[in-house]
């Protein structure tokens, strides 16, 4: 048996034997749960932490984007109501007294569940005050 070990050492050389021993030591640590196991636990915790931070970031970003979209929708709706009121003034010679008039005759479509719209007409020759707020 010693002859076989000697033949293996002679054929592979001492440097190969050192690498094999180092590989065996790493395998032993991996299976015994020593240093490599604790680093692996730390890496897992870091990955979980990164995933949680990314998820929270996406959630906050989506909420901010939705709020921005609602606010932009309110600005767009106000501009649409004002444009329709000006069109009414140009055609009829007077601003409409109610928002419903614009909805019925000028095709203004308002989602009353999503937006609170305040339309105040002072006189037929004065532009109305329009305020749109997302709900």
Walk me through this protein's architecture.
70% of the residues lie in helices and 9% in strands. The chain is mainly alpha-helical. A two-stranded antiparallel ribbon has the order 1-2. The radius of gyration is 38 Å and the shape is rod-shaped. The model has no long low-confidence stretch (mean pLDDT 83).
Topology:
Blueprint: H1 2-12, H2 14-32, H3 35-92, H4 99-105, E1 115-120, E2 129-134
Antiparallel strand pairs: 1-2
Order of helices and strands: HHHHEE
Strand fraction:
5-15%
Q: How many H/I helical runs?
A: 4
The span between the termini is 87 Å
Q: Major sheet: size, sense and barrel closure? A: 2 strands, antiparallel
Top keywords for this entry?
135 residues; mainly alpha; two-stranded antiparallel sheet; 2 strands; 70% helix; 9% strand
Structure in a nutshell:
The chain contains 4 helices and 2 strands.
């Amino acid at each position: 048996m010693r002859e076989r070990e000697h033949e293996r050492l002679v054929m592979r050389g001492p440097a190969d034997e050192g690498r094999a021993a180092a590989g065996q030591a790493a395998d032993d640590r991996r299976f015994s749960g020593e240093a490599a196991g604790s680093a692996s636990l730390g890496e897992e915790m870091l990955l979980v932490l990164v995933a949680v931070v990314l998820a929270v970031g996406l959630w906050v970003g989506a909420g901010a984007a939705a709020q921005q979209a609602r606010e932009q929708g309110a600005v767009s709706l106000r501009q649409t109501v004002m444009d329709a009121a000006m069109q009414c003034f140009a055609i009829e010679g007077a601003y409409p007294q109610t928002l419903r008039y614009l909805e019925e005759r000028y095709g203004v479509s308002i989602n009353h569940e999503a937006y609170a719209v305040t339309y105040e007409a002072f006189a037929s020759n004065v532009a109305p005050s329009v305020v749109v707020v997302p709900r």
